TrEMBL record:
This is Glutamine amidotransferase type-2 domain-containing protein. InterPro entries: EgtC-like (IPR026869), Gamma-glu_amide_hydrolase (IPR052373), GATase_2_dom (IPR017932), Ntn_hydrolases_N (IPR029055). Keywords: Glutamine amidotransferase. SUPFAM superfamilies: N-terminal nucleophile aminohydrolases (Ntn hydrolases) (SSF56235).
């Protein structure tokens, strides 16, 4: 699990606390709006995700990453093995606000809202700022909760639990698998890098 601290991002926060998200179902390399927007956007923190549709689920913008709740953005590269068998447990754990925030039907968005539920239960929903240690602790609890449910239900499918969460100040990333046969999916992180446009 990786984490960037508040000290690394201090003084570079935009005035807006809510992230701006662009999603699309067309390939990133072929999306004219993405190209036009990216020519005019700069940020101290960017999440990028190219998504492969979950098996059996429709491709639509509601299922595209990153997901947003308040000032939090979340991405997942991987899958929750046997998700259909534990989905009801995830939903039962959510409070009404988080349950109503669910828009899509992916395992990823469900994991995000479970993460938020765990973070708020442990540290308080009324808070606006969380330490990187608190964000990391909530990530560990979420992964252990999911793996516990999977084991409890006797699911044999591997789960690749590569998650990334940010509150705009800190970033916490996991690369986890509950299988000794399958390694976690790829996940890339760059810090202090700049991407310059070629004109």
């Amino acid at each position: 699990m990786a984490a960037a601290t508040r000290e690394e991002t201090k003084g570079r926060i935009n005035e807006a606390k809510t992230p701006c998200i662009f999603t699309g179902i067309t390939p990133a390399w072929n999306n004219m709006n993405l190209h036009r927007i990216s020519e005019n956007v700069s940020s101290h923190l960017i999440f990028g995700h190219v998504r492969a549709a979950s098996p059996g689920y429709p491709t639509n913008e509601a299922n595209c990453h990153p997901f947003l709740y308040k000032n939090f953005m979340f991405m997942h590269n991987g899958c929750v093995g046997g998700f259909s068998r534990i989905r009801r447990k995830v939903l039962a754990r959510l409070n009404d606000k988080l349950f109503l925030a669910l828009v899509g039907n992916t395992d990823s968005e469900h994991c995000f809202l479970l993460y938020m539920q765990i973070l708020f239960e442990k540290y308080g929903e009324e808070r606006e700022d969380f330490t990187v240690t608190e964000l990391r602790t909530a990530m560990n609890i979420m992964i252990n909760t999911i793996c516990g449910w999977i084991k409890e239900d006797g699911v044999k499918d591997a789960s690749l639990l590569n998650f990334a969460i940010t509150d705009g100040m800190s970033v916490v990333v996991s690369r986890s698998s509950n299988s000794s046969q399958k390694e976690g999916c790829s996940m890339y992180y760059a810090s202090g890098a700049s991407f310059d446009r070629i004109k």
